[in-house]
Amino acid sequence: MTQLAAKNKYLLLSSLGFLGLNFLWSFFYISIGKENFYGGLEQTKNYNFSIGNFIDDSKHLSADYIKVNKKKDIFLTLRIYADKQYDYDQNLYLFEGNVKALINGGSLKSDLLRYEKSSGILSATGNVIYSKGGQYIRAKEFKFNLLKEEGMIEDANGVLEIKNVLEDFKIDSNSEKLVVNNRSIHRLNNKGKNTYNDGIEFSFGNIQLPQNKITRLNKSVGSINNWRFKSDLITIKDNVWKANKIDFTNDPYDPNQISFEGIDVIAEEDDTGELIITSSKTNLILEGRNKTFLGKRIFGKRKRKNKYKLMYDGKDRDGLLLIRRSDNTLINNNIKVNFQPQFLVNRALLGKTNSYENSKSNDNKDINTLDLFGLSMKVNANYKDWSFDSLNDLSTLNTSRIASSYRNSSTLSKYYKMPIIDYSSLNIFTTYRSRAWNGSIGETEIKSAYGGFIEKNTSFQSGEVRNNLNFRVGTAKYEAEKLRSSEVINLWRSSAFASLESEYEIWKSNKKNLNQNKKMLLTPVPINPELVLKTDFNSGFFKYEDGSDQTFLKFSIGPEVRLGKLESNFLDYTKLSIMPGVKIKSGSSPFKFDNAIDLRTLNISFMQQIYGPFIFDIVSNINIDNNSENYGEYYNTKLGLLWHKRAYEIGIYYHPDNEAGGLYFRINGFDFDNSV
Length: 676
Fold this sequence. Notes:
A hairpin with a 5-residue loop joins strand 16 and strand 17 (275-286). The chain is mainly β. The protein has a domain at 2-299. It is elongated. 4% of the residues lie in helices and 58% in strands. It contains six helices and 37 strands. The strands form two sheets. The chain has a 20-stranded antiparallel sheet that branches. The chain has a 17-stranded mixed sheet that branches.
């Protein structure tokens, strides 16, 4: 066993594929102390390695501490195995045939390992493979000059597990773990098990975008943990890493469906010890041919989002607007504030506004310079079990229109354990000019409200039945539109509400028929045809200050069938859900926003593959109550068109009821169990 001394610095390459460059970082600055080599020699020899000192003198060298360049050192454990080992005049040292170096739990393999003492050049050539933890790197050749601190990695590619890269590349003097515990070896021994995991999603619009109803999995949004990367040549000089081009992808299969191309990439350590990676040009490549220029990108601690984004708000801002993003401002450890200034593009082009109640005459539609600007401010505070969230929105900075342009919603929440209902949340809220949607009545506005409620949300399984339960009880004072007129009334309301959604699996195709190893082109996971019975039970009781009350019970039941596997290009996926509902009502609300209407309804959800990745999605409700004045009307309709692939998806949705829409772009994440 040999003790290695090395510089007490390690780098975290947290940028997607470029993290792969770090696999030999600890190996670049080594001086090798007392070391055992096992292999083809008849007698085991002990060698001491250090920069400028490579001698067979282990008996006189302490293994406890070795200085390198007068810098603070830590120790590495290194073991080298090879079929053949050569020592040429104590200057050139060769290890050949099935070379395997174990470095603090990591494994470096190659056909040939070479060290030349006079030049200080250390090199590994032929099928170079490095693995540790979740990291797995391949290269044609690795060469590094220990004296000049410069080198190169040729034809590098691999897989990086970002969440553990710090631990995996950490130089730990106490580490004695061998590679048998490596997650990288685990993934090599479990080929063909690429698991749909997480993802990154970018979206904009003024409607809530749906969950992934194709995979039936909750899609997490945050970061992608595993990336594949490839670079023809990486050079290292003076602690700076450079590459003319680096490609990285989230896709576990080749040819990949999406990749990112970094041009003129530089990685260097800043004054704070953080690694900053700069790509002068970055291209997004879809299907290996459609290239989109993303511009310069900086990754690491100083990584910044795009400063500007476009949105559409036809109700409050007359259409298109430009938003300037800003970083959160920390007031202290518990409070953060975010400001987003806005420039109202459509309003500037029109030279007038139609967004305000008092803009009925031409004179009131006139604008000044302050009407061209808006502002959104978010406040978040947390302390122990308490949280406070506030959203404040101004569609103009014109002081004469503040009252009709300002919207606010704020909630103070406390999480605690209660008898019977277990962990719940106590919420105190205020709102000003909030939008509410009530079935076929359409959109209405709550001018103001304040109050409190206790809420409980939980999911559980009873036998074969999956359930989601929501319970809420509270009281609040509302200022809102009257049911039959535009008159605004102000009343206290006490309420109790409960809902129970359940699913029972009637039939599902045999999982054995699913090809887990197939390179699925149109979906990140195998799709299992199924038939599910869905039920939805809602109940509510409301008591109002004027003496009126309202009680309702609603029950919906219906099947959801999913056919096809998205393995063929034409009509190979259909999902249909039909749920008729009946609502029993007693009493009536004086308000428009919460009056129980649509006593007989039919909810329809339909998804259909058209061709290849094109999928059509529609969700709508129909009033089927013969006695209702809104009989036959469609409401809460959403229309969507999806481009759905294994590695990514794009969706656009439109809400015809209020002329709202949204767009999203999602990149899926995977666990690469079959590695490269």
